[in-house]
Amino acid sequence: MTERSLKKASYAVLVVPAVLIYASIIIIPIIYTSVLSFTEWTGYGIPKFVGLTHYLNMIKDPRFLHGLRNNLLVVGISIFGQIPLGFVLAYILYRKLVKAADFFETMIFLPITISSVVVAILFRQIFSQQGLFTQLVRIVRDEPRFVFSMFEDKYLAIIPILFVILWMYTGTYMIIFIANLQRISPSVIEAAVIDGAKEGQILFRIIIPSMLGVLFTTFVFAISGSLRSFDLIFAMTGGGPANYTEVIAIYMYQTTFKYYNYGFGSAVSMAIVALSVGLISVVQRIFGRFEKKYS
Amino acid sequence: MSKDITSLKKQNLTWRIFAYTVMVFYTFLTVGPLFWLTYSAFKPHIDIVKTVFAFPKSFYVENFKQAYKLGNLGIYFINSVIYAGVATTITVFLALMCGYGFAKFEYKRLSNFFYYFFIMGLLITVHSLLIPLFVLELKLGIDDTRIGVIIPYIALGLPFMVYLAKTFVEGIPESMIEAGRIDGASYLNIFWHMIVPVSLPVVTTMLIFSFLGNWNEFVLVLTLTSDAAIRSLPVGINSFAGGRSRDFGMQMAALVMGTMPMIIFYIFFHKQIKAGFAAGSVKE
């Protein structure tokens, strides 16, 4: 073999296995899903082309709209809850405002290792009518007959779940922020201190501008992660009671695997992908503007 | 001295009190429920309901025995080890091969094309693949088998792992590879004898990060398997959420047993897990 063909063959050996597995498990199926979303199919026989019917039915379905609302709230708590809170925690550790920073960091990051299912059942217990939260409120507010009943309200039922999501993932954002804060050159901050800059000025003029890139990354994580949120809600409430806590992924799972409506289920999963890509490009635009302003 | 540069020289008291309050409160909020879960698992059901906060009166291990037996946790644990172990090893190996190909061979256009292919995968949610995967596996006859779980795990793990591997291998000096070529080593020999040893730090991060993800995966096993003998720990534990267990003690013992392996894992590897998240977000 010549040197060139040898090199080509080596390249193929290195790259082809991964590309092949990836293409056959991810790329081809996603194309299949998008095609299936325009058909009526229950798993047997030949799919029948129905055009946009599923998409139109979907956006008219109040269950889908309620799921969408819940999904957007999950995105909201991620962007306006986890990210700022994670940043505050990271900043405190980075500026060494507390001792034993390693201890705090390790403890707050701990939920990342615990399976969503475990977290879900634990908090299902905590928020149950005989659970920890009910008992806690009874003692604190001195109301022995109090019973936690947020799940019975269609519009409030999602709140306990938002809390659990905040509980689980804030530590992850904290870790990401710490890693990136530590990359800011100390000499830049030192120079600013020598020039007499105040704490607030250092934060807003030096640190936050240099964090724009990673802030964008965390927004992307938050959006794509939120639209995927399934395991936690599935194990905690199953979307119930009466679909109050449903998100789109659960709606999709139920319609597909309970009613074997594969065509409709495919349309719903395409909506998840579209929503994720759409929201991320909006965020990209906003950040593009900020970056121009700062540079 | 250099350590003090980023800390405030004259930290005023209000700031420090604020900082301590936030940290202590948040740490308590995180660890509190887990601590409560752990000691409650040693209480009989009736005690958990009656005195929620009380510590166990005695070391009641019946919950654990029952949960282990009724929940088949032993089998689920072994399955989880198989899934996470096999899928992680193969994913990391394939990703490193791919990363070497993308970073050190001059077929840049093809490499870039494939690379962006992988990166796109980071945006795809597993739910949009469930239906075709389910149908595909049914047709191939690998539904409800271990291999039918492991292959999707590998595919879904690849995008991020390829990203980590490529970024790292790009940093390995070209001269090293050329020296190997002059000594007559083949490209695959170079991979095995140079790239792999030099990449060990990133490989460790990749292994641990990928293992964590695979260990906690839920929806694929739930959808693609129905035979209890091949299901994994998260799916097994999920059965304690439903009607089976009105017994809080047993439920909590199951959760503790399900979490213990990962807590031990975390104690040993939390530095590498942090490194994985950091590497994924740091912009070069």
Notable characteristics:
A: 295 residues; mainly alpha; MetI-like fold; two-stranded antiparallel ribbon; 13 helices; globular; B: 284 residues; 2 domains; disordered N terminus
Description:
The complex is a heterodimer of chains A (295) and B (284). Chain A is mostly helical and 295 residues long. Chain A has helices at 3-36, 53-60, 62-94, 101-109, 116-126, 132-140, 158-181, 186-194, 199-210, 212-228, 231-236, 248-257, 262-294, and strands spanning 39-40, 48-49. Chain A has one domain (54-294): MetI-like fold. In chain A, helix 12 runs antiparallel to helix 13. The termini of chain A are far apart. Chain B is mainly alpha-helical and 284 residues long. Chain B has two domains: 2-61, no CATH class; 71-239, MetI-like fold, CATH 1.10.3720.10. Helix content of chain B is 74%, strand content 0%. Chain B has helices spanning 13-40, 45-50, 62-70, 73-104, 108-120, 127-140, 147-170, 174-182, 187-198, 200-216, 219-224, 233-238, 248-281. The radius of gyration of chain B is 24 Å and the shape is globular. Mean pLDDT of chain B is 87; it is low at 1-6. Classes of the chains: A mainly alpha (295), B mainly alpha (284). At the A-B interface, helix 1, helix 3, helix 4, helix 5 and helix 6 of A face helix 1, helix 4, helix 5, helix 6 and helix 7 of B.
